[in-house]
Amino acid sequence: MKYLILFIICLGLLNTSSADMGDPSIQGVCKITTKDNISHEGFITLINGGFYGMFSNGFYFEIDDSSNNRILYDFNFYKLQKTKDGTFNVGYNSFKAKRAYFIAHTPYHYYSKKEQNNIIIDPKGPKLVTKKTNEFTYKLFDSIPLFKELPREYHLRYDKTEKLAEKIAMSDIISIEIIKKPQQVWLDKIAKAKKLYWDDNSDENSTGDFLEPTWYHELIQEPKRFNSLREYFNKWKK
């Protein structure tokens, strides 16, 4: 899979006060419809968890030669739709773009902090202004990897897509939605992968350092947990 590295600069400090086990990843069963009216289903990671916080996957759009748009998954989990005239609709956002990419936050490259100091002179005297930024790194895919199987480690890895994922060209896609009630075939695959994951991590040699992923279709059935995690995510990303 051909990809580029996209650097995103985000202003502000991040609150990384996670629980001891880190923050959960959120995975879901996804339905993609292409312009030939064929539906494709499989697994996708929406938000990456870990000891450093929660990092969303999403989409990057080239509007023209000088502007772009980036939309990441949050707890609204909006459906993406593309009209015949090339207009993308994602939640309350509507715009035309000449090119679209799926972006996945790179594992083990969370963010790097940078600090810039400037002295500003005003009538009351000199002031030191400190600006801190966080730099995130994403893989940029022109074809979205839709996983048909779950890996042994249970967490989807976008640096390991060759054998497990179907690649669907972003230029062929007219809609992407996260399924609230997956078919039994996907539930069976999740149950099998979960059992294997716990078998691998329940013996005396297991470090117990990893949380199993949270599934979107299960999370929305627990409003209290959903709202609590959404509130935490919204505070964290600020």
Summarize the structure.
By secondary structure, the protein is α+β, with helices and mostly antiparallel strands.
* Distance from first to last alpha carbon: 32 Å
Strand content: 35-45%
Q: Name the average pLDDT.
A: 84
Q: Supply the number of structural domains.
A: 1
Structural class: alpha+beta
The largest sheet, given as strand count, sense and whether it forms a barrel, is: 8 strands, mixed
Radius of gyration in whole Å, from Cα?
A: 20 Å
Please estimate the helix content: 10-25%
How would you explain this protein's 3D organization?
The chain has 238 residues and is α+β, with helices and mostly antiparallel strands. It has one domain. 15% of the residues lie in helices and 44% in strands. It has three helices and 16 strands. Strands 2, 3, 4, 7, 8, 9, 15 and 16 form an eight-stranded mixed beta sheet that branches. The protein starts with a strand and ends with a helix. The N terminus is likely disordered. This is YARHG domain-containing protein. Keywords: Signal. It comes from Tenacibaculum skagerrakense.
